[in-house]
Amino acid sequence: MLEAQFIGFLLERFEQNRDKDAIVWREQVYSYAWLKDKVETWHQALIDSDIEHGHVVMVEADYSPSSIALLIALIEYQAIIVPITDSVSHKKEEFIETAQAEYLIQIAADDSCQFTSLNQNAEHDCFSKLRSEKVPGLILFSSGSTGKSKAAVHDLAKLLEKYKVPRHALRAITFLLYDHIGGVNTLLYTLSNAGCVITVADRKPDTVLAAVDKFSADLLPTSPTFINLILISEAYQRHQLTSLKTVTYGTEPMPESTLLRFNKQFPHIKLLQTYGLSELGILRSKSKDNDSLWVKIGGEGFETRVTGDNILEIKAYSGMLGYLNAPSPYTEDGWFHTGDQVEVDGEYMRILGRKSEIINVGGQKVYPAEVESVLQQLDFIAESEVYGEKNALLGNVVCAKLRLNTLAAEQDKKTLKRQIKQHCSQSLESFQVPAKFKFDDSEQFSPRFKKMRTL
Amino acid sequence: MIFENNQIQTLIFQAIDELNALREEELIDKSPSTALYGQASPLDSVDLVNLLLSIEEFLEDEFDISFTIANEKAMSLKNSPFKSVASLTDYLTTELATADS
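^ Those are the sequences you sent over. The predicted structure of the assembly is below.
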C-alpha cells in the first residue's frame, strides 16, 4: 500500500468505505475500493514516467473516474497541477505559456489518457517555494472577463487542511467545472467525506436534473444563472427532485427575484449562498434564510473586514502564494482586496456586486443585480443584463440588454418597452429604471453558467 | 437631413407622450413654452435624459438618423438648448440639417 504523506486521510476514508459509491460517470457507478486502487495505479504510473516531483503538470479533462484519481495521485506526487477543461480550449496555448506547464496529461472523453512533454522548464518564485517545501501545488485561472486571465498559485497541502475535518457525506452533482475553485471544492469535499461525485455529460437543465433524479443527488452546487435556467426551462416538471436537499449558489450576485421564485417553487430545498475566489478558495458561509441574500461568511481559516468604501477584504490561511502573471494583490498587512462591494448588518453581509460594475447615474449608485432582479420578475423576460452607458447630462444612464421569451419576441418593441418601464417604476427609483433597451436573442451566459458582462 | 420646425416639435411631443405614459405626477404640457430644465420645469434631470433618449430613438427608428442630443457642443452652448421645447426644437432643426443620416 502507498505510504501517503498528503492524501493519507483520503485513502483512509476510501478504505473505510470500500463498498460505497464514489463516482457516477456515464450512468456507471464506481466504488471507493475501485477509486483507491486507481489512485495507487496512477501514482505508480507517475513514478514510472519522466515527470518529477515539483513539475508543473497540466491536466486537460472533465470529471471522470480517471481524471479524479489522477488529480489525487498528482497531489501525493507533489506535482504543481494545472487543471483545464474544454470551456477554455481557446485559451489553452496562453495557459500553457502562463503556467509554464512542463507536462500535459490529456484524459479523453472515453477516459483514455495521453502524456506529452512540453519541453520547457518552469521557473517562478512561487514554484521555488513549493519545491523547497516539498508540497504539491495548484494553479487556477481567474475567469478574466476583463483582460487576461490571472494564474493563482496555491499550496495544495494547506488547501487540503480544511477537508480533514469530517462533515456530512453528500451525493453531489459536479456542476462547477474541474478547473474551477468551486469544482475543486465540490470534489474534495465530497470525496473526503465519502460522499458520491455524480458527474454530468453536459450542463443543460434537463441533463442535470435527470442526474439528480436518477442518482438521488442531495446537493447541487451551481450559479444564479443556472437557477434561472432551471426555472425558465421548466425542466423540474420532467424530473423528480425529491432527493435534492440543498442548492448552493455563488460566483455572481443573485437577483433577489430569482431566489424568491426558486424558493416558492421548491420550499423543501435549502438555498445557500457560497463565497469563493480562485485566489482564496471557498469560505464557509451561512445564508440567513432560504429567501435571503444576507449571508455570514468566514469560518475557520478566514477573517473578513470591510473597507471605508464598503469593499470586502479577506485574510485566508490557505490563500494563494501569488499570481504567476500579475503583481501581488495583497495589502501590506496581508489582506486580499476582493473588489466586491458589500452591505453589512451585524454578522451578516449582502454582496452587491463588483465595484467596477456599479453604474453611477448623476452621483447615485445603481447595482446591476438589483435592476436585473426587477426585470426578471416579468414573465416574458428570459435573461437580462444591465450595464451603464456614458451620458453627457448624468454621467451614465442605465441600459438593459434583454433576451425575451419566444412568445414575446414577436411583440411590438415600443409597447414592450413602455410595459417594462412601467413595471420597473413600481419598485425602483427613476434613476434606476433602464433608459435604453437592446433586444437580443442570444443566450447571455458563459460555459461556466455565469452571466457574461459583455457591455 | 432637413426638417421643418413643426416636424421636430411633433417628435418632441411624441417623446413627452412617452414620459407622460409613465408619469404619476402632473402631466407635462405639450407646448413650445414648456420648460425642460430648471426651477420652472416639471422635469427633473432623469426625466430630461429619458426625454432626449426617446427623441433619439424616434430619429433612429423613423428616419434612420443616429444622433446624440446631449453632446459636448449642446452642453457648452451659452444659451442651453434644453431650456424649453422651443429652444430644443430650434437646436435640433439646426443640428440635424448638418448631421449625417
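The first helix of chain A runs from residue 8 to 16. Chain A has two domains: 1-354, 358-439.

Shout if you want it in another format.
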